[in-house]
Structures are given as C-alpha cells and as structure tokens.
Amino acid sequence: MNIPFIDLTSQQQKIRPEIDTRIKNVLEHGKYIMGPEINELESALSKRVDANYVISCGSGTDALLLALMGLQLKPGQGVIVPSFTFTASAEVMPLLGAIPIFAEVDEETFTLNPARLQDALDSAIKSAIEVVGIMSVGLFGQPAQMDKINSFAEANGLWVLDDAAQSFGTEFQGAKTGTLAKATCTSFFPAKPLGCYGDGGALFTNDFKIAEIARSCRVHGQGTNKYQTVRLGMTARLDTIQAAILLAKLDVFDKELQQRNAVANYYHELLRSWVETPICYPEMTSSWAVYTVKLPKIVDRVFLQESLSQKGIPTAIYYPIPMHLQKPYEHYPRANYGLEVSEHLAQSVISIPMHPYLTQEAQNTVSEAIIEVIKNSNKR
Ligand SMILES: Cc1ncc(COP(=O)(O)O)c(C=O)c1O
User: Does residue 163 fall inside a structural domain?
Assistant: First the structure.
C-alpha cells in the first residue's frame, strides 16, 4: 500500500464538478488578472476571518513581503523571528534590507517561545539594531502563544506580523487567525490546508494604512490609476483562476479541518507511548498542516525514514537545519544564550502523512511501522 503524504486527488474527486464550473466561468469571462473571483474570494475570506482588509497575492512569501512593506519596515531595522521555521519567514527581511534576529522556540509547541523574546531583543540591542517588530509563525498548523507575544510586543513598542502560512483556519482564545496580530499572512501553496493549484497567498489586517500600501505594492506601487507610480512595488497578484479554485475549496475547508483533527487525535492515541506527539494547548486550535513528532534519542532517524519508505510510507523532515545555521543567515544576530531547542528539534523531528482523507487503516500501518523500528532500536 502506498500512502500519500498529502492527498490532493481524493479532495479533487469530491469537488471536481465545482472546480470545473469555477474554471469554466473564468475561461468564459476571460479576466485572468484581477477578475471578479478575486473580489469574491477576498470578501469571503474577510467574512470568514473577521478581518477588515484581505489582499490576495501571488504566494505566502509575497504576502509576507507586502505586509512588511505595509508596515514600512526600513533597511537596517530588525525583526525578531523564530529560527525553527521555513526559509520564507526569515527571507523577507533581508530582501528589504532589514535584519532577522533569530529567537528560540518552545520545545513542546515548536512555536516562538515568549519567555525567550527578551534574549533576542537584548542581542539586537547589543548589536545596535533598532528592533521594530516580531514575526510569529503558526508552525505545523497551530498558532503561536499570541497573547504573550502581543503583550511583549506592546511593552516594547513593537508590531507583530503573524506568518500563518500553515495555520490559516485556526483560532486562539476564540479569535480567528488573521486577527491575532497587526497583520497576518497565509499561503495557498497546494500542500497547505487551504491550497490552490499553483502559488497563492493572502494578507489580512484591520489596519487601513497597511492594506493601502500592500494593495499598491501588489501592482508595482500603483497610485490612483494604472500609470501613476507612488512607491516601489512588485507584480504580486493572485491569478483569477487560482481564486476560482480557492472558492470551490473554501466550501469544504471547515469539514476538512474537522477531518484533520480526527486524524491527529487518532495519531496521538496510536503513537503517544512511543514518540513525543505534538501538543496543542486547549486555548488554540490547529489546522494540522503537518503532523510532526519528536523521536526518542535511541532512534536513528535516517534508518526510520528508509524503513518507512520501503513500506510505501513517505516522511519528511521539517526542518533539518534551523535558520540561524543556514548559509545566507549565519551572520545575523541570534538570541543570547543560544538556540539549543531549535537545533535539537532540527535533529529529532519527523513528519508523517497527514491529510483529511487519511483512513484509520492507513494510520495503523504508519504507526505500526514506526513502532516496529522503535522496538528494534530499544533492543540494540
Ligand atoms: C511557515 C511558512 N511561511 C511562509 C511560507 C511561504 O509560502 P509560499 O510557498 O506560498 O511562498 C511557507 C510555505 O511553505 C511556510 O510554511
């Protein structure tokens, strides 16, 4: 049995007629750039998240860039960002001439550790860097501890930008992701919980100025008309056809989130005596974008991956190298007292198949294969 890591085929079979109709409509009206589906999607997302402004765009990375432009991040200024994350979270600061300050994550939740933010701030101050903001990341599908991060930010006069590329669709203390920070970004990359059939992303904010600048930067820094340029920008629009696909997928998104939760709960049951299963605090929900466990020290991760692969079970390592150890980022400041947790997680995590259509039978197969390797490791 070959178990897909992410199963987009089963989803497509369920909603194929809606997708076909949506695509056909776009082909018929022919407005491939900023067609009516863009407005329809932005309105639907705005209603869903309770955010006043939604700016759809070309990717999650574009959304982060547009947000930082909207926040008027200047060259030389610093932004605190977790080291244990996907490249894009840190990439966008240097692209604007700014400086990522690498901070530590929480061992249990994988997200930014609020108790270690001061270390990152102190390290930046020591390097005479003016820190203006914090980027939280909803890693693997669950929001960071936004109340504590926001309190720290407020006490230090910083803004918070939430990278919710993986955590769109979740809630923290009853508020929706999209409204937990000054601005929030998500990705519609196909493998994301809400993904299109190409690249896509969106920025959410209640701040008029951020929205105004981001909307202008999305189209070359456009002013009140097409040929007036008021600032530097880029081409970062979402394709109409991708908006059409997302509208079809939005109809099943809530059901899929429930299914993802059921899959996660069953994995917890099967695996919690053998590996460290992911923790989601009761005050938040997770989209379970990825199901990542921590392996006991005795388990050889490469051997485990090979054993599972031979049985048709794909795995992935998110992320094998923390950002502060990646070549382009080595010279940027890191939190005082080191980033041991990020480094340890990079060595000990493994992600296993997770999608809304994963059957309990497939989950049993995955878990049995993992447990077998752990039992044999114990004997060695
Ligand atoms: C945490 C995080 N941030 C940003 C991104 C960037 O999104 P995109 O690939 O749509 O540019 C991703 C995508 O994998 C991500 O996982």
Answer: yes
Protein residue with its CA nearest to atom 8 in ligand 1: 60
Cα torsion for 90, 202, 77, 337, to the nearest 10°?
Answer: -40
Ligand 1 centre to CA of 13 (Å) is 26
Specify the CATH number for the domain of residue 344.
Answer: 3.90.1150.10
- Cα(123) to ligand 1 centroid in Å equals 27
Per-residue pLDDT, 226: 85
Report if pTM > 0.90.
yes
Q: What is the pLDDT of residues 13-32, one digit of tens each?
A: 999 999 999 999 999 999 99
Contact 3, 362 (CB under 8 A): yes
Alpha carbons 153 and 134: distance in angstroms, whole number:
7
Assigned domain for 80 exists: yes
Same domain, yes or no: 136 and 259: no
Strand order in the sheet with 78-82: 53-57, 201-205, 183-187, 159-163, 131-137, 78-82, 99-103
* Residue for token pair 């987009």: 8
Q: How far apart are CA 177 and CA 329, in angstroms?
A: 28
